Predict the 3D structure of the following.
Amino acid sequence: MSTPESSPGTDPGQEPELDPGTAEELEQERARAATGPVGDDAADTQTRLAKALQQTMTSPWTVSVGAVLLAIVAGSIMIAFTDEEVKAASTYFFARPGDTFVALGQAVGGAYAALFRGSVVNLQAPDVATALRPLTETLSYATPLIAAGLGVALAFRAGLFNIGGQGQMLVAAAAAGWVGFGVSGVPFPLHLVLALVAGIAAGALWAGLAGLLKARTGAHEVIVTIMLNYVAFYLISYFLATPGLLQAPGSSNPKTPPTPPSAQLPPLLGERFNLTWGFILALLAVVGVWWLLNRSAAGFAFRAVGENPRAARVAGIDTGRATVSSMLVAGGLVGLAGASQVLGGVTTGFSSDIDAGIGFDAITVALLGGSSPWGVLAAGILFGAFKAGGSTMQAAEGVPSDIVLVVQSLIVLFIAAPPLVRAIFRLPDPARRRAPKKARAARNRKEAAA
Amino acid sequence: MSADHKTTQLDAPLSETTRTVTLVSWKTAGVLATVTLLYALLLVAVPHSGDTRFLLSQRSDFFQIPVVVLPSAPLAWVCAVVLLAVTAVAAVLTARRRRTPTWLVVVYSAAALTGFLAWAGAGSPRDLSIVGLLGGAVLWSVPFVYGALGGVIGERAGVVNIAIEAQLLGAAFTAAVVSSITDSAVAGLAAALLAGALVSLVLGLFAITYHVNQVIVGVVLNVLVVGLTSFLYSQVLVPSAETLNSTTRFTAVPIPVLSDIPVLGPVLFRQPLLIYLMFLAVPAVWFALNRTRWGLRLRAVGEHPKAADTVGIDVVRTRYNAVLVAGAVAGLGGAFYTTVQLSQFGENMTGGAGYIALAAVIFGKWDPVRAAFAGLLFGFASNLQNVLSVVGSPVPSQFMLMVPYVVTLLAVAGLVGRSRPPAASGEPYVKG
């Protein structure tokens, strides 16, 4: 996450403003640091322990855990305040406060237990395969999120804000679906590959159009991609309502025929699970994007343009070309998400809501993943878990799955603001590790005043 | 505009500059030619005969104008000729290295619209209500215009406001609840104002105080508010819909005399209070940004926060101030959904209007008046289908719905071009 950290801790220019007492303490601290850890073994162990503790406390992972905790607490509060039984018990809170707390525990605990049961492991299951089924559900939900998240992340790295995930997914789904049920007589692997390629190409072209308009005319990609979302939506709606295009023959509903088996992504773990080879494709895409961004000349050009287009142009990089090609690749990745929906997720025929909001979720996934491919993978799986668990939670506990959106977005917010999380949990700041407490307090006061 | 921008950036030699200017300016003429061609193709490929009935007044009007019945094919072709003429003028001007004036583009747009309406309404026995078309456009543009104003204020102070959607939705929700409880639309409006500002406060906390990337905060806030309002809607509002989710709405208040002006009267002066407030808000925001000390400081902070800080402007405070005002203004737009349009809140009822408002901000080049007109255009777009479906348009409705977005694409690509945001927009300010 590219959070600009304020790190005045090592700035010597600030120190003279400290009050004399603090300055003195600072001197002592410096002296201690200069002499290094001396003395007997016990003290040595102690300092090492302290150091280990401090390292744990200041590690970015601690902040992430703290962020997740905070978000879960916020979710609990929401559940607690809206649960019927809690409400009923709280009416006689002062007579029997215990009841309220029991109801609270049941409501909150039950909801999160269901979330866990729906996304990781179902411990109530009779056999191992059923117990692990939620995990495979998580991965199937994660598949399009990862692919589309990569598309948004790649565009981000090239300095482009791709809000057009919805449109790109729709055209990709339409193209993949059309090749799926419109072309017949092609054997299994070839048919699938054709459909995948059609989907990826359609997504790439739709995003590439935005890139081209940006590069050629300077039109802002945010407007262009939003407008293309609407254009794609109405275009697909028209296709879906027109017999002979995407509409299922003999039907008057705006829905396509089902995807034939020869164009479906085969199941990865056997017929019992919904997880398909689409997940492997998403993993390959992660590796591919990592290679593209970090090991290829084109990726270097993308990042250079993203960091500083003017400098990139001076360095001889064709910025227009980088813009167009990064959007092409980004659209192709989002297209993979759209194709995997049609060829793996929803094979019974789709309508114009096939994108399922993934185009927008992908933005959050990319942001949470810090726009790096491996980060997107992790964030995609996390969000997949929330999606899988959210539906179980809604079914089992009657807690609307919308709460998952709240928890998700709070996690992203808190992770993006480490100082806030550290302040809440009173964790030390790595940037100010060496400054003693008083000086830190003084500085904080000053910052607060500023 | 974009040519100047390029030249200053590249510091190109003179010959290159001349070439760039010529190249860029051809875009306008090019887009006009493309649209003209498409329009002519439409007339040739799908010809319509019959008359188009333009209805210019309502039954309740003081002055009754008889229905104007015009033969549609000749009218459409007259418009085509106008389009061709404007395109030719634009081409000639461009060849002489002069810019196409804005009024010419306005004339072009009006002709294109008239021709299109004539063609779409051909042969229909029903009247094409111009008042309904324009009045509805004004009404539908309310969330876009307020949202765009909020976006402009935020961005001019250097805070990208992608959370417009969150402000609209949060305000719509709050307005619904408060207006239902108090039985007062005005109270709902006030609550919407506060809700918008509250979303802004969170935006400010993360973006200004904690220097979190503003795009991240904005996008995430949008998701957060969707989740929060949907959750509360199904858990709280649905069980007690009678008391918490049946709002008192603003009714249309005709302004005496002004509302009797033919055509314009019912369009502009027979609207609910929220719309009159919008008419005042647009110039007010323009004035506040461009003619007051507050606006000057705000813009300074958005263009060059360090310089502003050097001369003693409190950057953080100014930005908070701007963001809160922006949220409140966007909140007014959110109130539209539950105090004007419908009398209840529905899950995710703004449906991406905030993103459209964001597009209006950029389309309007971060200027409140232009952004408001861009919002009006999108409002017109949203309403066009409603009116044409009454007439029974021959084109599939999906394409009708698509037209405004395609036009926006063409306009952004051809007429607006490279737009320059405030220099420090999106940059958190770290002192020191």
Notes: Strands of chain B lie at 51-55, 68-71, 128-129, 253-254, 270-271.
